[in-house]
Amino acid sequence: MRNLIDYLKQDVRIDEALKACMNCGVCTAICPAAEFYDYDPRRICDTVQRGNEMEIERLLKSDTIWYCGQCMSCKTRCPRGNVPGELISVLRKASQELGYFSESEKGSQQKQLMNTIERNILEIGYCVHPDRVDPEYHPEQGPIWEWYRDHIEDIAPKLGANYHGDGPGALRTIPETDLEEVRRIFEVTGGNKLREQVCGEEQ
Amino acid sequence: MEKRFWNEYQKEIADDHYFYERSCIRQTFFPGSEAAFLRILRDELGKDICDNPHQHTCTGIGYHSDVVPFETTMTVVARLFSLMTECGYENYVPSCVTSFGVFSEVLEKWEHNPALMDQARQYLWEATKREFKTPKNIVHPSDVIYKFRFELKPRMKYQLINRYTGQPLRVVEHIGCHYAKIFPDRGIGKAEFPYVLAGMIEAWGGTVIDYPERRHCCGFGFRQYLIQENRGYSIANTKKKFQSMEPYEPDFILTNCPGCNMFLDKWQYTIAEMEHKTYDKEGYGIPVLTYEELTGLLLGYDPWTLGLQLHQVQCEPLLNKIGIVYKPDEKYKGISGRLLPRPERPECLRQD
Question: Is CATH 1.20.1050.140 what the domain over B15-139 is classified as, yes or no?
Fold first, then answer.
């Protein structure tokens, strides 16, 4: 059987994320996610610190670790210098690598993120780009966004952007030679492997 | 005498020769702001700033959405540093607050764990045959504008004064969480008394509103917004801020983070449509400006070249309060000079 604590300790971030938690709960008090969800970062730190394998496995398979919004307000406030938001990143990575993420509704959403944000990075070199913010899926962007998208070739240059152009500037097309280097970085450093672990071979 | 706590927390901001890294969100939603920043630095301040065409995302949104591993992000950061090194620059200025946080995190981890930086060098070499030096100075562009706020002031045509009352404009400043909450030493005034935007507002004639939820997150939450089903988290947090600032009747909101700017603007529209509620008295909503837009406006730049027409909350009531001269007919014209069809009007967010 896999030792989950040892597995988590392989992540270079965990030493700074969780040093010693005294369960004061200040992280929960400041946490925007704790106000919106049934979410308590203090309990997550406590669970990992206690090292109960079954509880950690339950955590990795739960919705709970996917509630954090990564604002990192917890880091500012923790009197012991822990970073609960970073511990969440360690847990999420392990959950994806071990296949536990697909056992929760929120965890399963990682496939969507792989197929939008990660795909954007590899295909065009941007996390977000106006071509890929479809008003149909973003009604909150309002009519101005739809208007901008409809007329972007006429508006973007007026604002100094270089939309789909060569050379420097906002929204330029990133040269294929640069994108290829980014893709090789993903291959060498495990980015592609993580995508395969989340999306499977077919992607 | 009032104690100015922020004065105790200053940081070094390079004087010239910057390497600029563009922001995915800023380019997407407010590209005019990045153009304005470069124009201000080059034309107003006579500074040298490199806009390298080979740059790309830092992967920050992917990193905080947990689809990009740390090892990948730190090596992408290393590639961006190699571009800076190749061009002969040492002062790195990332447009995005998320990027600023990512760079700060990578640099701090490398400092605490030099073997990790060696690993980044090996990864980068294996993937690209590139090498890099770390920056001598890394600051957010809002730090640079803050540094030169008094040099810019004599060049400004307008001040943050309500021309109808003669009183200072009342401004809410919202600072992106990743500017100083993760690494307080890297922010002017640290996390407790961040002064980067307040310093601009006060230098240029306005007054800063202190309100209970001043330091609360804008609500982005990465996966909490990027996944449509999760967006309740995002709008609920933004609403909490609006409810808290409403009694103080702000004239506008000023931001330094690209994401925060977009959310504080667009969620006002959404809340108005959902609940028929706006957080100003007249029903227009509270205008939300980037610090580049504000600086450009006060310098006399054309609002429609700055890109104010891309905000859902209309800016004209604010322009009128300041007394900014503008051409209403130019608002919906494109680069060709052709008058474009007007955007649809929101049902519940007033515009003239």
Answer: yes
Predicted local distance difference test score (pLDDT) of residue B10: 76
Q: Tokens 């992408």, residue?
A: B76
Specify the pLDDT at position A202: 57
Out of B67, B71, B231, name the one closest to residue A189 (CB). Answer: B71
What is the value of ipTM here, to two decimals?
Answer: 0.97
Query: Is residue B19 helix, strand or coil?
Result: strand
pLDDT of residue B2: 60
Chain A residue at shortest CA distance from B269? A142
Contact A142 B312 (CB under 8 A): yes
Burial of B273 (0-12, 13-18, 19+ CB in 10 A): middle
Mutate to test the interface with B, among A19, A39, A144 (most CBs of B within 10 A): A144
Closest to A53 (Cα-Cα) out of A10, A106, A8 = A8
Domains of chain A: 4-106 (1.10.1060.10), 110-199 (no CATH)
Domain ranges of chain B: 15-139, 142-330
Q: For residue A46, count CB atoms less than 10 angstroms from its CB and return exposed for 0-12, middle for 13-18, buried for 19 or more.
A: middle
Listed in sequence order, the residues at least 6 apart from B338 whose beta carbon sits closer than 8 Å to its beta carbon are A154
Q: Which fold has domain B142-330?
A: Rossmann fold (3.40.50)
Strand order in B91-94's β-sheet?
B49-51, B18-21, B91-94, B137-138
The secondary element (H helix, E strand) that includes residue B288 is strand B288-290
**Identity of residue A11:** D
Query: Which runs of consecutive H residues, i.e. helices, occur in B196-322?
Result: 196-203, 223-226, 231-245, 258-275, 291-299, 303-306, 316-322
* Residue entry with tokens 């630095």: B41
Residues of chain B where predicted confidence (pLDDT) is lower than 70: 1-8
| Structure confidence at residue A51 as a pLDDT band (50, 70, 90) | very high
| Yes or no, beta carbons of A113 and B342 under 8 Å apart | no
Predicted TM-score of the model (pTM): 0.97
Write down the pLDDT at residue A203.
52
The verdict on A199 touching B (C-beta cutoff 8 Å) is no
